[in-house]
Amino acid sequence: MSSRGISSRYQLDAVTNRFLDDFPVHCHFRNGMIGQSEMHAHRGYELYFCLEGDGKLLVEDRVYSLQPGAFAIMKPHVLHLARVIGTKPLHRVVLSIDERYALSAFDNSPGIGDCVRALFTEPQLPSSCWLLPAVKAEAIRDVLLRLTRELSDKPLYYEAAIHHLLAELFVALAREQLSPPAADETDHVTFHLAERILQYLAAHYAESIEVSRLHERFNVSRSHMYDHFKQATGHSLNRYLTIYRINQAKRLLLDTPLSVTEIASAAGFGDLSHFFHTFKSETGRTPNAYRKRTGKN
């Protein structure tokens, strides 16, 4: 799936996609600025592990608190954005795994396959996040560090070593997920309104939504709703709704035989000309051109 021509306001993560084209697993430690400043999506599962610092992770209709030990899993093609809180850098590990590899690599290992399903396919939400105890967080960090070294150095039999390390990681995470404490419990009240709005938008994006009157549904003032949503997500309500609808349209263009007219309606664009204009403004292509060109990559 190519990202050439995609507007910087809504991005497919071409860098991650290229890494996964070359090898189905990519892992790296980061301690600098967050490169992505807008909502983005990519192929493959993303596992996001916070080591130091404080931040927020916006994943479609969820806002998670990033603090040391927070571990998040995001499904393929899910919009997400990490943001730093304060001035301290966010130290994190980002592990990307090709979807097909993740779901098939352990087919002959029944126990590990159960762990994979528990982590990646059984949860109904597009993401999950929990807070690891300090001892387990250190053990997970060690596994990810060894995984990063294998991928970087590529010693003899590194592919077998990566397979083994992923199995170790999946077992540890699946055990922890049996009774996961909420990683965003501290900020649950702070982000509660934003999450309610995000969940409403995700459930009703295909309908006509009058954003200027949305505050009436949540029994708050319009200004409070706007300010709170922008603080929690980094986006205005109108901007987020546009991004979400365009992402749904992209999925339908690539994954279904629906006509462009049907997709415009299914994605919440009541007017076809408005859909064409918005889609081209966001991606640099018409819907038909996007389907034809991107679907081949």
From TrEMBL:
<dbReference type="InterPro" id="IPR014710">
    <property type="entry name" value="RmlC-like_jellyroll"/>
</dbReference>
<dbReference type="InterPro" id="IPR018062">
    <property type="entry name" value="HTH_AraC-typ_CS"/>
</dbReference>
<feature type="domain" description="HTH araC/xylS-type">
    <location>
        <begin position="195"/>
        <end position="293"/>
    </location>
</feature>
<dbReference type="InterPro" id="IPR009057">
    <property type="entry name" value="Homeodomain-like_sf"/>
</dbReference>
<dbReference type="Pfam" id="PF02311">
    <property type="entry name" value="AraC_binding"/>
</dbReference>
<dbReference type="Pfam" id="PF12833">
    <property type="entry name" value="HTH_18"/>
</dbReference>
<dbReference type="InterPro" id="IPR037923">
    <property type="entry name" value="HTH-like"/>
</dbReference>
<dbReference type="InterPro" id="IPR018060">
    <property type="entry name" value="HTH_AraC"/>
</dbReference>
<dbReference type="InterPro" id="IPR003313">
    <property type="entry name" value="AraC-bd"/>
</dbReference>
<dbReference type="GO" id="GO:0003700">
    <property type="term" value="F:DNA-binding transcription factor activity"/>
</dbReference>
<keyword id="KW-0804">Transcription</keyword>
<dbReference type="GO" id="GO:0043565">
    <property type="term" value="F:sequence-specific DNA binding"/>
</dbReference>
<keyword id="KW-0238">DNA-binding</keyword>
<keyword id="KW-0805">Transcription regulation</keyword>
<protein>
    <submittedName>
        <fullName>AraC family transcriptional regulator</fullName>
    </submittedName>
</protein>
<dbReference type="InterPro" id="IPR020449">
    <property type="entry name" value="Tscrpt_reg_AraC-type_HTH"/>
</dbReference>
